[in-house]
Design brief:
- By secondary structure, the protein is an all-alpha fold.
- The chain has a domain at 21-68.
- The chain contains three helices and no strands.
- The protein has helices at 5-10, 22-48, 53-68.
- The longest helix has 27 residues, at 22-48.
- The two termini are 19 Å apart.
Length: 69
């Protein structure tokens, strides 16, 4: 797969394509581990702050998605 240099400048993760096999499995397990810890923890912190639990979920979800990009 070939992408233009200007597109790769703004979206460097496109260099990883094609993606699969053992790397995909390892990344999936790592992501699952993070989710299993992050969701209950963030919801608990929101409740400690006196907010509804779903605010903690939103606060934890958005930075992780930005960092992934």
């Amino acid at each position: 797969m070939s992408f233009s240099p200007s597109l790769l400048r703004f979206l460097p993760f496109l260099r990883w394509l094609p993606y699969g096999g053992a790397t995909l499995r390892a990344d999936f397990l790592a992501g699952l581990t993070v989710v299993l810890v992050l969701v209950p923890q963030s919801m608990a912190y929101a409740q400690l702050a006196g907010l509804p639990a779903y605010y903690g979920f939103y606060a934890a979800f958005l930075p992780v998605m930005v960092a992934a990009m």
